[in-house]
Specification:
By secondary structure, this protein is an alpha+beta fold. It has a single domain, classed as Thiol Ester Dehydrase, Chain A (Roll), CATH 3.10.129.10. Helix content is 27%, strand content 35%. The protein is built from 4 helices and 6 strands. The chain has helices at residues 8-15, 17-21, 53-71, 108-116, and strands at 25-29, 34-38, 79-90, 98-104, 122-131, 136-148. Strands 1-2-4-5-6-3 form a 6-stranded antiparallel β-sheet. It holds the Pfam family DUF4442. This is DUF4442 domain-containing protein. It comes from Streptomyces alkaliterrae.
């Protein structure tokens, strides 16, 4: 983003208050990959002292939103990105800070081609949640759509 345009992190934080509530940190946001970090915060711990499942879901969903905004920034004037459905699997106990890494499950050009054809494309975003030691604590897939403006 240029000096005059807000960053993807700034846009998400301004438009999705939960992002600010959880103090999510934007490590990387590009059209190829988005990485967000949830700091270790006792206010968002679960009953075993790690990040609450809802906080990890929000972290992963926010990472997916960041890559969608980055990958489809040029289409936002004609379509609205919306999450359609999500599935999350909690793999290992998460303790301390956790990081979510999101990647598109289909080439962006393929999705735009469907939008150009008048369709409402759907595409997956795959997210991995890791502890600081690198262990995978969760995996999530969110299916997004670009809903054409009427």
């Amino acid at each position: 983003m240029s000096e005059n345009q807000p960053s993807i992190g700034d846009m998400l934080t301004a438009s999705v208050p939960m992002v600010a509530t959880l103090n999510l940190e934007y490590v990387e946001t590009s059209a190829e990959r988005a990485v967000l970090r949830l700091p270790d915060q006792p206010a968002y711990h679960n009953h075993v002292g790690g990040p609450h499942a809802g906080a990890m879901f929000t972290l992963a969903e926010s990472a997916s939103g960041a890559i969608v905004l980055a990958a489809f920034a040029g289409e936002l004037g004609r379509a609205v990105p919306l999450a359609v459905r999500a599935e999350i699997a909690y793999k290992k106990l998460a303790m301390g800070p956790v990081t979510a890494t999101a990647e598109l499950g289909r080439p962006a050009a393929e999705v735009v081609k469907e939008l150009d054809a008048g369709e409402r494309p759907e595409f997956p975003v795959n997210i991995t949640i890791n502890r600081e030691d690198g262990a995978v604590t969760g995996e999530m897939t969110i299916v997004w759509t670009l809903r054409p403006n009427s």
